[in-house]
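This week, think about what follows.
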Amino acid sequence: MQEYKKTQLGYPIIGVFGLGFIISLLYLLLAGFNIAMFVLAIILLVMLTLFATLTIHIKDQTLTAAFGSGLIRRHFKLDDIASVSKVRNEW
């Protein structure tokens, strides 16, 4: 079987978490240090790193779906997949 790998960017995730991170940094720079805002900035940066991309990799009869750097991932045997269909989710 031929190997397949595709990475999808999550533009809404990048937009929301990225904008939140930038706003929290601007707040820290303009209003002074605030521990709650600093923690929020760190959480937003971690969420952005974890969920900005989704990678699908098919190799050796296994499908792997991994978010971001691959810390969150799931493996499926191709034999266990009963059916597939192409869908388009409209926002």
User: Anything to note?
Assistant: The longest strand covers residues 53-59. Helices lie at 11-31, 35-51. The two ends are 35 Å apart (CA to CA). The chain has a mean pLDDT of 94.
